Amino acid sequence: MKRTSQQEGALMELFVNSLKDINWAEKQLVKALKKMAKAASSGDVSKAFEDHMTQTEGQIERLAQVFELLGKKPTSKKCEAMEGLLKEADELIEETEEGTEVRDVALIAAAQKVEHYEIATYGTLKTLAGTLGLAEAQKLLQETLEEEKQADFLLTEIAEDYVNEEASKE
Q1: In the CATH hierarchy, which top-level class contains the domain 5-169?
Q2: Please, what's the largest Cα pairwise distance for the chain?
Q3: One digit per residue, pLDDT tens: the chain, 170 residues?
Q4: End-to-end Cα separation, the chain, in angstroms
Q5: Helices 43-69 and 135-158, interaxial angle, to 10°?
Q6: Torsion of CA 11, 15, 21, 23, to 10 degrees
Q7: Phi-psi category of 108—alpha, beta or left, where left has phi over 0 and alpha has psi -120 to 50?
């Protein structure tokens, strides 16, 4: 079925609004990752958050490139989903004892919820870019999607390798 220009316009509007949403989310995540890195007990968990913070800054730059490809300024709109996920992360920090592996388990769980949200969002954006014939944008979004999947994998590895086991001994 061939799309009408009105349908394509609506799809492009959805795409741009979703870009604004994830742009806000990524900017808030940079701040949250800094806080999470400081709250972590394990050096490995802290380093994973710091590394992902640096990676997230690159993802924000990549989003700016996508906006540029569309001839738009990189703007943001509040992402209610990310706000909720980061609020939950803050609550977990408050509810767990400083210096414990249990806190690290909670931080990893919170971070993975964020990663799964980002994986879903970037997967959708990549697909929409392809549907809209935006090959370069699709490539940039795919790159970020792969980084998010890798970050999630790394967090799982850290949790499974030792953090969860150590927390069970506390």
Answers
A1: mainly alpha
A2: 61
A3: 455 555 568 999 999 999 999 999 999 999 999 999 999 998 999 999 999 999 999 999 999 999 999 999 999 999 999 999 999 999 999 999 998 889 999 999 999 999 999 999 999 999 999 999 999 999 999 999 999 999 999 999 998 886 666 766 77
A4: 59
A5: 170
A6: -170
A7: alpha
Give the CA angle between residues 43, 45, 51 to the nearest 5°: 95
Can you list the alpha helix ranges (DSSP code H) found in the chain?
A: 5-39, 43-69, 80-95, 101-131, 135-158, 164-169
Answering whether pTM is above 0.85, one says yes
Report the C-alpha gap between 101 and 81 in whole angstroms.
27
Measured in residues, the chain has a length of 170
The one-letter code for the residue type at 42 is S
Question: What contacts 88, CB < 8 A, 6 or more positions away?
Answer: 110, 113
Q: 84: part of which helix (H) or strand (E)? A: helix 80-95
CA–CA distance from 91 to each of 26, 59, 85 (Å)? Answer: 20, 26, 10
Q: Where are the domains of the chain?
A: 5-169
Take residue 86 and report the two structure tokens written for it: 């980061």
Rounded CA-CA distance 98/49 in Å is: 17
